[in-house]
Amino acid sequence: MKQVPVTVLSGFLGSGKTTFLNYLLHADHGRRIGVLVNDFGSVNIDADLVTRIEGETMSLANGCICCSIRGDMEETLVSMVDGDEKPDHLLIEASGVSDPAAIVQTFALSHDLRAKVYLDGIVAVVDGEQVRDLKGKNALLARRQIAVADLLLVNKVDLLDDAQRASLSKWLRQQVSDVRLVETVRGRVPLELVFGLGGKKWREAAEKDTLDVHVHDVEQSAKHAHENHLLEFETWTYRGEKPFDFTALKRMMSGLPASVYRVKGIVQLQNMPAERTVLQVAGRRVSFLGDRLWRDTRPYTELVFIAAAGKLDPDRLAARMDQCLADAKETAAEDRQADAIGKEVQINRWAQKFWEHSARAMQQRMAEDHSNGEQ
Ligand SMILES: Nc1nc2c(ncn2[C@@H]2O[C@H](COP(=O)(O)OP(=O)(O)OP(=O)(O)O)[C@@H](O)[C@H]2O)c(=O)[nH]1
């Protein structure tokens, strides 16, 4: 039986993996692609944000495929290959906290997997704006993700000037000398660079045992990695059914402590009642994007927070979220007055950008629908 090639997308929280995945799925490559998306939090946000016309998207949430749900990854991949519509290629979007070296081990060690799939390559996505701001264990994890990659997408270069790009490139070259670096905006890279990488680098590393984790000791290291993740990261999910005030929520998200690394999910905004909105906080950058019309779906809010372990205080966060609800009556009169002046400017500026984005997203979707209809 012909084995199916697998590409693993790795990269730190919020670097642009899902964005890249969507670009890839909509690009003209003529392959039937099976997708497996892994979310560290308990909600399948990423799978929800993967837009595709056809092909299978499987989702594994509430754990990390490099450790706690390694077995689930094996089973899911095998079932995808054995299914009625065998894919030509599999893409795995690893969670932003996963260590690709441990994923490589799973591929190297599982007989079931080895019979059906082979690792074609690891593509790491780097947040060009913020990767160098990562501290401590996050910085180490990001470096491990970079080190194992066969292809490195230096993403978000639209947020950098020429000097920053040059200095980032130099810094990355100091981290890894033997990998192809490609600067990208929203993960747009020539497809021939992505498929058929051959996985040479990881295979060599596995043979030389330089993956930094011992291949024969996978149970132990997986357990260790799992413990590390639980020790290092914590997640919490906010759910609600009342609409939020855009300005208040944006201000709150912009003021989150640095220990909150990532927030993502769906928000119901009073200012945009008809449209489902995606909220993204990656490091210090906050963005709202009109996503799709609610239509028959009852509007809701579901946001996953990922932070340094021990730094999330759910009660406090929930209280702060509630203060941003459109019908919140808590704001002191004084605050409200002070806000009113700032709000006037902010709402106009932000609402403008916000609508601009929504309109663009809508146009793009319509164009995609149109071109798909023509095929
Ligand atoms: N300016 C800019 N923003 C980008 C680019 N690529 C992605 N983003 C934004 O960065 C945020 C995070 O992108 P995602 O694709 O969700 O990141 P991710 O790596 O899948 O995130 P996790 O799965 O949570 O680790 C979103 O708001 C994207 O729209 C880019 O090239 N430039």
Automatic annotation (TrEMBL):
Q: Which InterPro entries match?
A: CobW-likC_sf, CobW-like_C, CobW/HypB/UreG_nucleotide-bd, P-loop_NTPase, Zinc-reg_GTPase_activator
Q: Which GO terms describe its cellular component?
A: cytoplasm
Q: Does the keyword Chaperone apply?
A: yes
Alphabetical keyword list: Chaperone, Hydrolase, Nucleotide-binding
GO MF terms listed in the record are: hydrolase activity; nucleotide binding
Function, in words = Zinc chaperone that directly transfers zinc cofactor to target proteins, thereby activating them. Zinc is transferred from the CXCC motif in the GTPase domain to the zinc binding site in target proteins in a process requiring GTP hydrolysis.
Family designation:
Belongs to the SIMIBI class G3E GTPase family. ZNG1 subfamily.
Q: What is this protein called?
A: GTP-binding protein
